[in-house]
Fold this sequence. Notes:
Elements: H1 7-17, E1 29-34, E2 37-42, H2 56-75, E3 81-84, E4 107-110, H3 127-132, E5 140-141, E6 159-164, H4 166-182, H5 184-192, E7 194-195, E8 208-209, H6 217-228, H7 230-251, H8 259-264, E9 272-279, H9 280-287, H10 291-296, H11 303-322, E10 326-329, H12 332-335, H13 337-346, E11 353-364
Parallel strand pairs: 7-8
Antiparallel strand pairs: 1-2, 2-4, 3-4, 5-11, 6-9, 9-11, 10-11
Helix pairs in contact: 1-2, 2-11, 4-7, 4-13, 5-7, 6-7
Amino acid sequence: MSPAPSTETLRELVLLASRAPSAHNTQPWSPRLVRGAVEVSVIPSRTLPAGDPTFRDLVLSLGAWVESFAIGAAALGRRVVVEPLPALEHLDELPVTGPADPAAPVLRITAPSASTRAKPYATPFTPDDVRRRRVHRGRLRGRPGAFDDLSTLALPRWLSLRRLDDRAMGQLSRLGIAFTASRRTVADELLHWLRLSPAHPQYHRDGMTDAMLAMPAALARLSAPATRRAALRDPIVAVAGVIGRTAESLGRDAPLPPYARSLAASPPDAPEHLVLVADTRAAGVDETISLTEAMDSRIGLPERNVLEAGRVLQRLWLHARVQGMAVSPHSELIDSPAAHGILRRRLSLGRADIALSVFSTGEPVGPVARSPRLTDVTG
Ligand SMILES: Cc1cc2nc3c(=O)[nH]c(=O)nc-3n(C[C@H](O)[C@H](O)[C@H](O)COP(=O)(O)O)c2cc1C
């Protein structure tokens, strides 16, 4: 029996994993093959110091990468052993820019072939699902009930999926956008990852293209220069800041109808809005994490749990994909303190609950663009 996969197999799995989603399509992972295993380091220049200061989205993205790798391994009859390494708990020590440090990987994955004692990873998803999953920021037509049965997705006891009503989603999303627009460093960082014209040197490699954002061609043409030249960016960010701050202060106190009534009154074709919530107390019971560990992490949950949540998030997004649906994530609802506060009250979240991800889901109306990857071969 040869338990270790060949280098070629590991390369294939790494290529598949590169289709994982990441915030702003930064692809912050740097995998390296080391003695039959894959070690993954974080690329500092691909982190989002302004938009993701707690590294929540970074670790969720790494989890999605791991899940994609595991799905590829399962198709080859292999299980995966994922070992979070100490550097995962010390992301704060990363520089804000520069290349990955191969001497400080955050996780190690091995994919031994399944023995009789350890079965291959059981997953309802295939490598093709991983390749065909998409985020869609255009219109989504809701499919009620599509997320009612999550039994095949193996959610740990400490993770749950809550529904947010369409009315609240609309209001919170406006607050979230206002937050992004009014924080100069956050807005600058977002513009840095936009590629609004094929003339952008990174258009086929990373970031978010005009097509991915479902942007009208004229608007993309007009805005494209600002994503490349700081001198043009500054006045735009300044104006957006004023509009954003005004929208934020107006939107904060707008009244909402009662949650249950509003949920029942959601238009039938409205997308479903879902929130992935971690219960730190239940995570502690299951995995004996101490309160100090939870407090040490800036996310409020140990990074290895957030990594696990990222795997679950990818399963949820693949669950949408196999039903012909797409998702539209809305991290800004968690990042904006105003939106986050209203979200917590709306869902009656307790002290121990942490909202990790908010996304809408439904059938895409109109074409869905494929996102680029650093691993794409372009002619
Ligand atoms: C943790 C996480 C957070 C994300 N947050 C947002 C978000 O707030 N808004 C958004 O439009 N897309 C968000 N995305 C989606 C990414 O931008 C998207 O995955 C990336 O651009 C690659 O596109 P693809 O998923 O279609 O391959 C997020 C993705 C991840 C993994």
